[in-house]
Amino acid sequence: MLVISDLRSEVDGKAILKGLSLTLNAGEVHAIMGPNGAGKSTLAYTLGGRPNYEPTGGSVDFLGQDLLEMAPHERAAAGLFLGFQYPVEIPGISNVQFLREALNSQRKARGEEPLSAADFLRLAREKAGLLGMDMDMLKRPVNVGFSGGEKKRAEMVQMGILDPKLAILDETDSGLDIDALKTVGAGINSIMRAPDKAVLLITHYQRLLDYVQPDFVHILADGRIVKSGGPELALALEREGYAEVIAA
Amino acid sequence: MSALAPLPTRRDEAWRYSDLDAAARTWPIDEPDRFVVAPGEQRAISLLQDAGPAETVIRDHRIEIGAGGTLSVHLLDVGGALGRVTFDVTLAEGAHFELKAALIGGGEQTIELVTTVTHAEPNATSAQTVRAIAAGKATTSYLGQIRVARGAQKTDAAQSFKAMLLDRTATANAKPELEIFADDVKCAHGASVGELDKAALFYMASRGLDPARARALMLQAFIAGLFDDMADEGERDRFDAIALAKLEALG
Ligand SMILES: Nc1ncnc2c1ncn2[C@@H]1O[C@H](COP(=O)(O)OP(=O)(O)O)[C@@H](O)[C@H]1O
Ligand SMILES: [Mg+2]
């Protein structure tokens, strides 16, 4: 599904990713862990095509297409979803309007019929319910006045509505209390655990991985994957810390 | 500014940001539109200025609002090489003037709004809300003068101007001016100039919206609500549609 080969990228002229390689197959959940400043968000933004996150080498194949050649909205239509570490507030545009326009733009790009207002609302209500989010919140402007935890929940509602093939979730667990973590974990499993989908979970802590169990765990440090393993690697990190595990 | 008025110059405060070449092409201009709101009367007017790109439009209004009267004005100013609309309003005791305006310019347009609101007697209120969007090499300007006469106590005058620049070559000017000869007066004005939030544009793109649509949605949100309280629904829909079409054409 996603093949990243020797990816290098710069943020405002500063080299951050320094030759990162990683392959995700359909049906798999991968976790990327790593210390602050390792380049985890830079990886997510580079894959999403954020301006100023400039790929300078290597390649990324997403479902047979050259991901780095595509505009951000084309990547979304191709099935990529980026869960933001810091979701953006958009005053004056309601979640419902935003998501309906976004979904229908994606459908149009794929040559599909647009969803009617009624069908869209049915879908939105179902996904909001899955994440324990009040439908009234979806009528409010995008992320405006939402708490940190509500923003993360809203990201997952968006993911449920847009139904991507690949989700890259950047610290979706931060800002969530333990109940919310459970709900969000169950939401991720229900939306993304499927034979034709894959997830890249970026996280700092083991705790989300108790709910969304990864098939593979990678440690990112200084712009590269320095170690890969199974779920036991995350547990070792939790016990011993990054320095120990990376050195081992 | 009667037909006999000489061509303005840059030194003329009310013309300092204008397109004087475009003004010269149409000079001398017509007499201002004059009208009177009777005491206690409530009136609403909507003005649409969407002339063709080569035209020069200068529309002056002289308005008197009688004691306890109210005038509500909605303005959508998007047309002409120069699209200039001015209001000179005088308020009697307890009168109210309300203006909601959107100024949208692209290419090399100069779109400007010039207001002079005179609170001649006590207890009058005025509220002006102006939103401006400039793309390309366009200039949008709002010159708003408030005059509070001697003895016009309990005056409450508010101005809010927000501008959005879509290109580095676009310009927004705001020039509030207060002339106050009473002491128990509330005058509030705010002005800000900004650009579209790049983080929001990327966020929208990451959800699948193409850049032109994302931009139009954000600009629509920026002027949202200006025309919501227009009494005539058909007219309101027409204003919203023309504003949206203009925003999408800014390219
Ligand atoms: N806009 C930016 N300009 C310059 N440096 C940046 C910018 N954003 C991030 N960085 C730097 O890039 C490195 C990686 O950051 P980031 O990808 O956010 O790390 P992580 O998500 O792993 O904590 C850090 O050294 C950070 O200081
Ligand atoms: Mg980060």
What name goes with the CATH superfamily of chain A? Answer: P-loop containing nucleotide triphosphate hydrolases
**Hey, roughly how much beta strand do the residues of chain B contain?**
35-45%
Sheet with the most strands, sense and barrel status of chain A: 6 strands, mixed
Name the structural class of chain B: alpha/beta
Strand order of the largest sheet of chain A: 6-9-10-3-11-12
Commentary on this structure:
The complex is a heterodimer of chains A (248) and B (251). With 248 residues, chain A is α/β, with parallel strands linked by helices. Chain A contains eight helices and twelve strands. In chain A, strand 4 (53-62) and strand 5 form a beta hairpin. Chain B has 251 residues and is of the alpha/beta class. Chain B has one domain. In chain B, 18% of the residues lie in helices and 45% in strands. Chain B has helices at 20-26, 198-206, 211-223, 233-249; strands at residues 33-37, 42-49, 56-65, 70-77, 82-91, 96-105, 110-119, 125-134, 139-148, 155-165, 171-180, 185-194. In chain B, the strands form two sheets. Chain B has a six-stranded parallel sheet with strand order 1-3-5-7-9-11, with helices on one face. In chain B, strands 2-4-6-8-10-12 form a six-stranded parallel sheet, covered by helices on one side. In chain B, helix 3 packs across helix 4. The A-B interface holds A 48-51, 71-73, 75-77, 81-82, 84, 87-93, 97-99, 101-103, 105-106, 109, 158, 162 and B 197-200, 202-211, 213-214, 217-218, 220-222, 224. The site of adenosine-5'-diphosphate has 12 residues of chain A, from strand 2 and helix 1. Magnesium ion binds next to helix 1 of chain A.
